[in-house]
Amino acid sequence: MADGLITRDPVAAAGPQSLRSRSATVLGRLRASPWWLRVLAIFVASRLVSTAFLLIFAAMEPTTSWTVQHPDYGSFARIWDGQWYYVIATLGYPKTLPLVDVGGALHVGQNAWAFLPVYPYLVKGFMLLTGAAFPAAGVFVSVVAAAGAALVFHRLVSRFLPAGSALFAVALFCFAPLSPLMQVTYAESLFLLLVAASLLFLLQRRYWLMLATAAVASFTRPGMVALALVLVLHWAFRWWNRRTDPFPGRDRVVVIVVAVVTGVLGLAWPVVAWIATGDRSAYTETELAWRADYIGYGKLVPFTSWVQGADWWFPGGSGVVFLAVAVVLFALFLLSPWVRRLPVDLRLWSVAYALYLLAVFFPQSSTFRVLMPLFPLLGALAVPRSKVFRVALLVLCVVGQWVWIYYCWWVNGADWTPP
Predict the structure, then answer these.
(1) pLDDT tens-digit map of 39-65
(2) Which structural domain, as residue segments, surrounds residue 231?
(3) Which of 4, 101, 148, 207 is the most exposed place for a label (fewest CB within 10 A)?
(4) DSSP-based three-state secondary structure for 181
(5) Is the pLDDT of residue 14 over 70?
(6) pLDDT confidence of 6, banded at 50, 70, 90?
(7) Which tens digit of pLDDT belongs to each residue from 232-246?
């Protein structure tokens, strides 16, 4: 009461019917907005959630080898591999490989050659252009690339999903458990953007444009050699179906050329490391240094790392059984009706990239991160239209962010779970 008058809450006075009407108006305007605005609205909402989680954990962070206690956002976003990207952006790559003495034997130690140059040099260019410090520049590049990845991913899934399902696929992409990585100083969001663009160009059969994005991706993150295999399978699929889907001679030649060049580019970084250091196995030995803490130093034998990892995590043979079950379940998922809604080329990418990981990667807590390029499979999870299913999936994604930051990103003492 004021001056003898009773004031009324205009929202309460409006009543529930008016509130529902306003909500419907807002939703109607959102549906009528351009597709890119809807995608960016989802992206911004997801970044608010991830930023809140990262700030909460930063406030709980003790003093570590990377940061002081309770670091600011930029410092917290630069830990783990972000520190290696900082080294590359400021100092470049070493010409002499560091060596560690293990029982009288010298082995290559961890060093910057494990990280490819596009992201750190792009951040360096932005630093020089704006005068920004590495954390701010790195986070800016990552977030912009992530927004671009969300937009391109929408264009990708819109080719085979209705509008609502395509937006839900984008929501899964933006709110995914590892989506906080898209706003720290990691190369993941830039790589996802380039992979999404390459796959979109492949579906559009714009092979030369695909080669351009694949070339940049080849020096952003490892794994693009898998795209060369996709192109070989793509060639075979188009040739097999040439009667119903013409495969002219010019396209046959272009696909072969692009496949060969993509394969060469996918294997080029080890050659660059060899030329720069004079050590033919510089890149391979550098990568092997990261698994030495688990199984010691050794040679890279394709398709044995996952068996070694399974035995390390679950000794006594149970790990191999677990690995076999995981592979079978993944294969069954690829054969499911949901996944079969995806274009053949996206399914081929999922198979090829999974084979690449089985060939070279050692499973540990970073496994979840290296699985991120399988993001086209999110399109399969967007096929069911049940609201209960979709809400539950998004809730699991948000909870998964908290769990992943707690176990993998947040550093609490002697942390052995790198992201």
Answers:
(1) 999 999 999 999 999 999 999 999 998
(2) 32-409
(3) 4
(4) helix
(5) no
(6) very low
(7) 999 999 999 999 999
Distances (CA, A) of 247 to 235, 261, 367: 9, 20, 38
Q: In whole angstroms, give the CA distance from residue 331 to residue 218.
A: 27
* Domains: count for the chain: 1
Helix (H) or strand (E) holding 327: helix 318-334
- Tell me the CB-side half-sphere exposure of residue 303, using CA atoms within 13 A: 4
In angstroms, the CA 294 to CA 304 distance is 14
Residue 12 domain-assigned (yes or no)? no
Under 8 Å CB-to-CB from 319, ≥6 apart: which residues? Answer: 309, 310, 311, 312, 313
CB 372 within 8 A of CB 178: yes
CB 296 within 8 A of CB 105: no
Q: Which residue spans within 160-241 are E strands per DSSP? A: none
CB–CB of 367/361 below 8 Å?
yes
Tokens of 73: 């956002």
pLDDT of 316 strictly over 70: yes
User: Is 419 within a domain?
Assistant: no
Phi first, then psi: what are they for 114, rounded to 5°?
-75, -10
pLDDT category at 20 given cuts 50, 70, 90 is low
Read off the pLDDT of residues 68-90 as tens digits, 9 standing for 90 and up.
Answer: 999 999 999 999 999 999 999 99
In a domain, 393, yes or no: yes
Q: Return d(Cα 38, Cα 43) in angstroms, integer.
A: 9
417 within some domain:
no
Res. 32 pLDDT band, cuts 50 70 90: confident
Closest among 400, 366, 360, 272 to 81, alpha carbons compared: 366
Q: Which two tokens stand for residue 137?
A: 């520049």
d(CA 324, CA 393): 26
* Backbone φ and ψ of 301, nearest 5°: -115, 115
Q: Are 356 and 223 in contact (CB under 8 A)?
A: yes
